[in-house]
Amino acid sequence: MRAEPEAGRGPAAGAPVPAPLLRAVFAHAAAAYPRECCGLLLGPRHGALDEVRQCANAQDRYHEADAGTFPRDARSAFTLGVDDIRALAASLDGPRPARVLYHSHVDAPARFSAEDERLALLGGEAPAWPLLHLVVEVRAGVALGAALHEWDPARRRFREAGRFTGTVQDWTACSTGAAQD
């Protein structure tokens, strides 16, 4: 496990999400409906995010194999597959680290749920990965908005760091603001 991320430091620091990447994430979320999608946003360590890596949601596979341990299917949960976890881990030490982990919520708001936080912490008291988390709201197959979340080490929980609203067709720019509680 890596050291706890500090506010404004590490690979995810200063990672506003460019509109073209948000459009690609929205398209992925809409195409995956009624299942949750997941993926990573990457870019040069000291530059802007410039790549979307769609990941396979392995949740259905785990649910089918062991519904007792994995009671939720991909309509209400996501799990990165082993290859995607390996790629994420390798990227963090490379010149183009993953800086944002994204997933969609099906017919639910774009908010970081208690389950999202539990998974991000992997049983620890700080995030397992130094990533921002982007949650996309998808209803009836249309991506309606997203919220970006970051770890707040002082409060020891995730907080909203930015909100993006409007359909993918409307997006020409997006912004992140000060963290809100």
Topology:
Elements: H1 19-32, E1 38-42, E2 51-55, H2 59-65, H3 82-92, E3 98-106, H4 114-121, E4 132-139, E5 142-152, E6 157-165
Parallel strand pairs: 3-4
Antiparallel strand pairs: 1-2, 1-3, 4-5, 5-6
Put the structure in a nutshell.
The protein is an alpha+beta fold and 181 residues long.
Description:
It is built from four helices and six strands, in the order H-E-E-H-H-E-H-E-E-E. It is an alpha+beta fold and 181 residues long. The chain has a six-stranded mixed sheet.
The name CATH uses for the topology is Cytidine Deaminase, domain 2
Spatial order of the strands in the main sheet? 2-1-3-4-5-6
Mean pLDDT: 86
Largest sheet: 6 strands, mixed
* Number of discrete helical segments: 4
Number of structural domains: 1
Could you give the distance between the termini?
27 Å
**C-alpha-based Rg, rounded:** 15 Å
How would you name the CATH homologous superfamily? Cytidine Deaminase, domain 2
Please name the defining characteristics of this protein.
181 residues, alpha+beta, Cytidine Deaminase, domain 2, disordered N terminus, disordered C terminus
